[in-house]
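FAQ: What does the model actually see?

It sees only this:
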Amino acid sequence: MLEFVVTGPAAPRGRFLCAHGAGAGMASPFLSKIAALLAERDLATHRFEFHYMSERRRSGRRTPPPRAERLTEEVVAAVMAMPPGPPVLIGGKSMGGRVASLVADRLSTEGRVCGLVCLGYPFHPPKQPAALRTAHLERLRCPTLIIQGERDPFGSRDEVTGYPLSSAITVVWASDGDHDLGPRGASGHTRAGNLAAAADAIVRFAERVGAG
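And it is asked to produce this:
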């Protein structure tokens, strides 16, 4: 039985269906903070866990996640399980956003979602810049927001600006941010500031695509 952790007002102007990253579940500090910031901005976040993560918590064994392509139907099932309400954005942190991106066009065409939000997209594995995960992003039609740290080891600003991404994709850069959008101490930026800016960017995107 799919369970959601819902953070936000009872009558939000929009909703964000959010999947977790490969190594941390839906209650991670990063996702909890993003959900709280979006709640302050009148967007509700519905977090859910992939089956492998639920099993990992139940058994205590850190089994690796399946390939992203094998998780896509779990995102579809989560969309179908959403209660009636305001428009829905799909996406998530790192792997969760990547999995959602693989079914975003399908769900958008069906009218089930109005946009995709990726928080730290894993464009390639760390230290493997040639192993790109971008082929489908070149032809993506669903309106998409990617919020990426400028020095993310999964795809830095210098790297990503050279990729031939679809015109449906908007990339917002977290100043000096890593994969969790956190900057270095001497950068003059703060994690709190970067996360607040990310929440603001999601709200602006939601308003643009009709989910806020």
